[in-house]
Structures are given as C-alpha cells and as structure tokens.
Amino acid sequence: MTSHLLAMSFDAAASPSITLMAGKGKDASAGWGFAWYPMDDAAATVVKDPNATHETPLTRVLRDWDRFRSSVFICHTHGAAKRVTQQDTHPFQRAWAGRDWIFAHSGELGRDLQEKLPLGESPAFEPVGRTDSEHAFCWLLGRIREVGARSLGAVGWERLHGWLMELDAVSPTSHGNFVLSDGHDVVAHRDARGQHPFFRIRRVPPHERFVLVGEKVVLDLSSPYDVNRTVTIVSRTPLDDDPGWQELTPGEMVVMRRGVFTYSSVGGAAPEASRPSAPAPAEPPASPPDASTRRGQVPAASEQPRLLGVPRAAAVKKARDGRILTVEHETIYRYEEAVELSTHVFRLHPVHDLGQDVLDYRLEISPPGAARRAEDVFGNQMLQYKIERPYEELWIRARSRVHVREHDPIAPLKRATLPLVWMPWQRQMMTPYLLPPELPETQLHELSEYAMSFALRNDYDLVETLRDMNQSIFRDFAYVQGATQIETSPFVVFIERRGVCQDFANLFICLCRLLNVPARYRVGYIFTGASYDNQIQSEASHAWAEVYLPNVGWRGYDPTNGIMGGRDHVRVAHGRNYRDATPTSGTLFRGGKGERLEAKVRVEVEDE
Question: What is the pTM of this model?
C-alpha cells in the first residue's frame, strides 16, 4: 500500500482542519497518525488509529477541534505496518534533551536494517514496535545523542542529510521519504531512488483559497484566527492545482521553520518564492508645499558654517573611501485657484555626520518668501517658509552632492538576544521609538505574533531576527503604487501584503517596537544603479527604517529592497513616523483649490 506523508510549519500557532479521505481496497484499513506540539510546547501530542475503516470520533477531532494550536504538524495516513497496532503506527515519538521528537517514514528500509545499522548493546533508544521505521528513528536519535546535539539545528544540516542518505542506502531495496521534527525545525527528505515523490510549497497571505483538496487529505485553513498565517507544506502529492508546488529532487532534504524553508541540500539555503512584483519606492506623499527665499536661492553649502568641524578639503579627501552621490529633487504644486497666504516646512537638507558628508547643497524656491532656518526636535535641519503673495504655482528645487560611506559590519561586543533590557534612562530617551502605533489591541496582538515568529525562527538572536524580518517583507509583500494612503496602518499592510516604501517601513518599525527594539522612520533617497531591477526607485524620494542596536548605534534597514542602509542611501530626515520627517509640509490659509502635485528625483553617482 502507498502511504501519504504530510508535514506543515506555520509562522505562528495555527489550528488547521484535517479531513482524511476514505481509503479503497488495501488502503481501507491502513490507519493514520497525527502529531503536533500544543501551543508550541516542548511536549508533543500524538493521536493514532491503526485500523480506521470509517469516520470515528478521532477523525472528527482532526476535522472539527479548533484548540490544538501549534506551528508544527505531521500527518501519516493510509500506510500502517503489516501488524495493525498502535506501537507500529506512524508517527513515532521519543523524548531527548528536554523535548519530544517526532518521526514518520513512508517506504521500505529492508529486513537487514537492524543488522547493518545496529543500535548497540545498551542503546539509549529502543523501538517499542517491530517496524524498520522505528528502528531507523532510534538509530538517528542515537547518532544525535552521540554528537551531543540537543536540537536538530545543532546537528548540522549536511551531517543530518548524510545520515538520512545512509538510511536510504542500507540495502538495494531501501526507499522512502522521511519526516523528522524536534518541535522547532521540520526536516523532510525524499528517497534517493526517486520511487516516492515529495512536493513542497510555501503559501503566503492573502490566500486565494483556504481549502486544499488532495487525493487522501483535505486541509482547511479557513479559521478566522489563521487566515493571515504563512505556512510551508511538504506532501507526498500536491494538495491542489497551485503551480507553486515544487517536486523535491531524489535525495533532497529540506528544512522548514516557522513558515520558511531555511535549508535545502540542493544549493544550501533554500530559495524562497520571489517577490510578487518588483520594488519601486515612490516618494512619500507630500503635505502642502516646500519653500525657500527669493526666486529662490538659499545660501550654498560652501557659504554656510562648517558642520562637525569637518573642513571641505577633508571631506573631499574622505571621498576616496566612499561614494559621492548627486541628488536633484524637484517638487511642483499647481492650483486652479490662487493661494493667497501659506506657511511651509521643508526638510530637504541631507544629514552631515560621521557616515555622510554634505559637500554641496542648494535650494531654490519660487515664488519668493520669508525663510528661516531651524533644527527640529529630532535634529533635522528644516526651513520654515512663509508666502504672503498670491500664487498659482509653487516649485522647489533641491540639489545635493553627498559623500556616503559604508557602515562597518555589525559586530556587537557580545551576541545580543531578545528581549532587550534597557536601563531606565535609556528607556526614557528611547520611549518615542518604542511605542507602537495606537491600534486596536486585537490588531496589535496579531502583529505581535507575526513579530515573534521572526524571533522564534532565529532563536531570539537580535541581528538575525532583524535581517530575516527585513528580507521577508521584501520577499512576501508586493510593491503596488496607489494601493495605500498616508494613513494606512501597519495592520492593513500586514493583511493585504502590499504597499509602497513608507508602508513597508511603517510595518518594519511596528514589528521592531513590539519586540521592544527602538526603531525610527527615515526619509531620503536611494541610488539604484545597474544592479537593481527597477530603475523607478531613483526617480522618487525613499523611506526606510532605522533600528538602534546595543553597542552599535542606529542602523538602516530597507525592507522595500531587502537590504541594509549603505552607500546607496542618502539620509535626509528622521522621526517617529512619516509626519515627523516629511520632506514638504505646510498650511494653505486662503485659496488653493484644485491642487496638483508633481515630483521627481534624480540620483547619480560620480565616477568612483
């Protein structure tokens, strides 16, 4: 008979509904087994029925019980051993290193398995039943114990793959697929001879369908609590006609953790599905206009006081170890009805600090008005501008020449792990960057579970959690211009999985703050260059996030592109959110109906 092997890994605890299809012929008395880790505890629960010929109370539990929430599920159906007993029915369960381990196998390992791979005179793990599969499980756990590993990840994926290949080659007739889990990782291996197919898929919200119908299993993911879950599935046969199902190559081993394929023996790190559409950061929507002095030249950078004591000659010399970018930013407001009185605030002057030197900066504004320079509470340079004469068109042209240096690699004095602990004075200073947006508690709870999925997947390592979060938003969320508005909340972006650069930055910031990691909103520009797929990014302002890392400082994360802030990013202004750092804002006191906005940005790199 042919058994069906199914394994699932969700990014957060879920409660799928499982319906087993009635078997025919030999499969009618095949039996089934189902394992999961309730509420993601270290202890697993295994339910078995070795001789299921019809619907029973146990099968109704799989279908209707919505309280067995877990991030890991393993199911083995239509393939019990010849002796129809509980002890011989998959999956098998053993305890080691303070947690339960689950194992299931579909296939035949041969009668001489015990002779070729003995457990030893006094084995730490002994089979309860008589199947070759349980013997293989005990042999694997013995090897894991021998190397001192207390989790699957500690074994090393290449070493584990070698062991599974050794099982697969124990005799000329050996074949079959394996699934092994310690509650964190789920390992799936296809037999090297290719006799048993194995398929995988990663399903990311928003889901087009929630009920997946296979030959022997029906999987229902329509629970209201689970509609926003990401799930990876490995199955002997595809559960639907989704073209995303990929067949594992013979002998391939893949690893799932928290809704992501983290490893494949074919190529190392398992490649995930590409982003739904190419990224193209658009300028953050501007509030009313931008402005400066007469016809407008604001004094050039060369005429302004030197900042941070860095003379121009020294700044030019430093250009040898970085990159010089020129930015031209033009914004034009047109009105059907003339504006008679308006005030504006412009934050267009790039940052001048240890990581970035402003070599030249010019700002032109028309019509002329009264201008006053100032520094806001966040340290951003801003220009306050007042126009007291009627106008139907307002244009602002800012030109910058900036030397950007690459940040040093992140190397904290010691490994930083979540949760972060802040001294009282540190928390007081960071409070504006630790408070998540004011959303309903239910929405924050959902976002908090999503944030925790990254921490759990990366064993609470701070740097790896942020890296994973940054790349996941880039990979799983579609860049769609016009899909959102300025007030679109991070929860809406999370639900719809689409937006623009400011939406992805807001979501990243919200997730960080829910993990007690300080994060702020950054506005500036990005040079895409020939290495980027979409050149539109250089034609608009850009937004990303910055995170405060202990013993490191503020570092930029660009979830729109899945990269860290570096020498392609020109930093301009930052704040708690977009409104604190918006490039142009203002108030029209009289007139100004029928406003139309036109903005464009050009970023180029000087010869390096």
Answer: 0.86
